């Protein structure tokens, strides 16, 4: 089993002991965003469009093909992915349908060893330092690829709306919804 060091994730938090104890109980710990990272929340459907599948291997491959190798949390209950990006990039995310947890928000971060369901887990490895956070440009490429696929529509049809799957793309950008947003 690979062991990941959580020191970087908790190094600026005023309660590192509490966080580690929560992780020892195999529960997600609430970490404040803006200290080391911000988080971009993506609906599972956004990545699923690019992956052509909801299967884990295909989803991981879609992230990696876009240049995202680490720092992705899966929340299967909410059907979200949280992609950890460098602090200070929240202002750059003005894409409709994309929500950013910037400074002074809290995110349930799974224990570094939690790589599988059930529950919140790391889809891609937890960051060991700032260099392991996702590149915002790579994440934008992934979102753009999802928009392009949905805009093209199902094979053989003009783009815009795929009513059968409940996904749409507006003129302003992405609003991929396979389920209602919470």
TrEMBL record:
<protein>
    <recommendedName>
        <fullName>DNA primase/polymerase bifunctional N-terminal domain-containing protein</fullName>
    </recommendedName>
</protein>
């Amino acid at each position: 089993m690979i062991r990941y060091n959580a020191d970087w994730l908790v190094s600026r938090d005023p309660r590192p002991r509490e966080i580690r104890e929560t992780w020892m109980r195999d529960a997600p710990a609430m970490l404040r965003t803006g200290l080391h990272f911000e988080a971009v929340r993506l609906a599972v459907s956004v990545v699923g469009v690019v992956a052509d599948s909801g299967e884990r291997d295909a989803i991981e491959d879609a992230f990696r093909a876009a240049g995202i190798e680490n720092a992705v949390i899966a929340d299967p209950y909410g059907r979200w992915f949280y992609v950890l990006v460098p602090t200070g990039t929240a202002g750059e995310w003005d894409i409709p349908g994309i929500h950013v947890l910037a400074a002074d928000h809290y995110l349930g971060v799974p224990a570094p060893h939690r790589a599988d369901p059930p529950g919140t887990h790391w889809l891609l490895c937890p960051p060991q330092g700032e260099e392991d956070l996702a590149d915002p440009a790579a994440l934008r490429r992934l979102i753009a690829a999802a928009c392009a696929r949905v805009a093209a529509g199902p094979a053989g049809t003009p783009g815009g709306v795929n009513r059968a799957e409940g996904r749409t793309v507006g003129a302003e950008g992405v609003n991929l919804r396979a389920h209602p947003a919470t």
